[in-house]
């Protein structure tokens, strides 16, 4: 009878002899395939990301507009330009009928690009305007850099 340990040693030596690593050419082919896939998929992902930020800004603007409507119902007027959106979180000194805070959280949110929303009262489009200048942070623009303005009320 053959020793079991001897058989196991021979078997493991044969298995090790058949093992080889990847060649440089194989690795380069895999990297090239990954680069091609990313060049096709990458722009779409970036487009979806910028579109989602625009949608998030529109939703936040509508939330701020609803909070301003609640403020209007309590106080009887919209905040002035000097008061701004901060009156949604902090009672102004000259308003006794303030019943806020009108937003959740402890701060007025910034737009998805990290800049504060712009508030105008009276607005160019309605009783007030809430807007974000989009990705570029400047008035005007096209696409994702287009201004996002509250809908008319």
Describe this entry's structure for a reader:
With 153 residues, this protein is mainly alpha-helical. Helices cover 44% and strands 6% of the residues. The chain has 2 helices and 3 strands. It has helices spanning 4-18, 24-75; strands at 118-120, 129-132, 148-149. The protein has a 3-stranded antiparallel beta sheet with strand order 1-2-3, covered by helices on one side. β1 and β2 form a beta hairpin. It is elongated, with a radius of gyration of 30 Å.
Strand percentage, roughly?
Answer: 5-15%
CATH C-level category: Alpha Beta
Morphology call: elongated
The CATH H-level homologous superfamily: Glycoprotein, Type 4 Pilin
Mean pLDDT across all amino acids: 81
Can you tell me the residue ranges where pLDDT is under 50 for at least 5 consecutive residues? none
Q: Please list the strands of the largest sheet in the order they lie side by side.
A: 1-2-3
Q: Please report the distance between the alpha carbons of the first and last residues.
A: 95 Å
Cα-based radius of gyration, to the nearest Å: 30 Å
CATH architecture: 2-Layer Sandwich
How many distinct folded domains? 1
SS class: mainly alpha
- The name CATH uses for the topology is Glycoprotein, Type 4 Pilin
Largest sheet: 3 strands, antiparallel
Count of discrete alpha- or pi-helical segments spanning 4 or more residues: 2
Portion of residues in helices? 40-55%
Number of β-strand runs: 3
Helices and strands, in N-to-C order?
A: HHEEE
């Amino acid at each position: 009878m053959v020793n079991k340990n001897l058989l196991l040693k021979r078997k493991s030596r044969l298995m090790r002899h058949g093992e080889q690593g990847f060649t440089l050419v194989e690795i380069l082919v895999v990297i090239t395939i990954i680069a091609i896939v990313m060049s096709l998929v990458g722009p779409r992902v970036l487009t979806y990301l910028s579109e989602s930020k625009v949608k998030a800004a529109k939703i936040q603007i509508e939330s701020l507009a609803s909070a301003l409507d609640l403020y209007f119902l309590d106080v009887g007027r919209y905040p002035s330009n000097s008061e701004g959106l901060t009156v949604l979180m902090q009672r102004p000194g000259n308003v006794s009928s303030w019943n806020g805070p009108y937003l959740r959280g402890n701060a007025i949110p910034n737009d998805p690009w990290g800049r504060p929303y712009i508030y105008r009262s009276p607005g160019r489009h309605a009783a007030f305007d809430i807007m974000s200048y989009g990705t570029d942070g400047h008035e005007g623009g096209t696409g994702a850099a287009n201004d996002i303005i509250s809908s008319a009320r």
